[in-house]
Amino acid sequence: MQKVTWIPGDGIGPEVTKSACDIVLASGAAVEFEEVAAGMVEGERTGTPLPAAVFESIARNQVVIKGPTQTPFGGDYRVRIERKNDKGVIEKRSHPSVAIALRKELGLYVNVRPVRNYPSVQSRYDNVDIIIFRENSEDLYTGMERMIDEGTAEAIKIISFRATERVSKFALDYMRRLKRKKLTVGHKANVMKMTDGLFLKTAQETAKAYPEITLDQRVVDALCMELVMKPEIFDGLLLPNLYGDIVSDLAAGLVGGLGVAPGANIGPDCAMFEAVHGSAPDIAGKDVANPMAAILSAVMMLRYIGQSQAADRIDKALSHVLKEKRDITPDLGGGGGTRRMTEAIVAKLKDS
């Protein structure tokens, strides 16, 4: 039995993650959920948006399913962490959001974002099936910024051989397991010759150990153009942190938006699975939130822990409910709500 840490999150997070958890349990998967609170609401209640209990649960379980957590725009909002290091010394750090704090503190160095067409989900494109691998630990997202004077700010871009080789191996191993054949590196090495040049060169060198996978490359602006012209030509994408953040959301738009886009953040010791959309506080509690991205994130989780049969059953049941349209949420073109869509998927699982 696999225990999984469940962080409901803020806004619609509790609704959509409960939907995902209910469906996982209905699939017959050997999973138990351990609920812990984190996010803005928890911060307002207790004074800290990321309590120590969250890290204690993750340390026990090593697998997390997480709802969206809210972060205020602007201001000096920081998530402050106090954790013991390997020598037992308490270290204090701060991060701009709960999601970033978890990625950094847990060493979740790669973000995996599959994007593909689903039945009856409206899209301008057909035959889209891409896996995006985003390096999660460095690039401009290290937050190394400073004001030089009143009118000038600078940010430092960090790209290392170690981090790039690590994410390249992960992506190539992932592609190999799925028998996928082409990985495209997105970069700006024509301008960022040292940083993006190192990213591209390291990926190319790493790929030499995977002769069955073709590694090609695109300058990132040209990649974006091709994605919106002919997305069906791409199989897998490997990108540094900033480009990966942008391109993965762009790619979600090719198949229906963030409401149908699952995600995983994976490290050497644990993995966190979460829908990539926001907390949508304006519709929280109204039973209209689309749970599909959370459900698909749970499907990714099941495959990660080796329960692919349950994952396949959920994927099939979801596709059936989408085709019928009757019980899906309004944004998907149906007349149902979060619970009704969940119950319809659970019913399909029980009938199969």
Description:
This protein has 2 domains: 207 residues, 3-Layer(aba) Sandwich (Isopropylmalate Dehydrogenase); 131 residues, Isopropylmalate Dehydrogenase (3-Layer(aba) Sandwich), CATH 3.40.718. The mean pLDDT is 93. Helix 1 links the parallel strand 1 and strand 2. Helix 1 packs across helix 9. The chain starts with a strand and ends with a helix. It contains 11 helices and 14 strands. The protein is α/β, with parallel strands linked by helices and 352 residues long. The protein is globular and about 55 Å long. The strands form 3 sheets. The protein has a 10-stranded mixed β-sheet with strand order 2-1-3-14-13-6-7-12-10-11, with helices on both faces. A two-stranded antiparallel sheet has the order 4-5.
List keywords for this structure.
39% helix, 2 domains, 21% strand, single chain, two-stranded antiparallel ribbon, Isopropylmalate Dehydrogenase, 352 residues
Q: Major sheet: order of its strands?
A: 2-1-3-14-13-6-7-12-10-11
Q: Which segments are poorly predicted (pLDDT under 50) over 5 or more consecutive residues?
A: none
- For the termini, the CA-CA separation is 22 Å
Basic shape: globular
CATH class of the largest domain: Alpha Beta
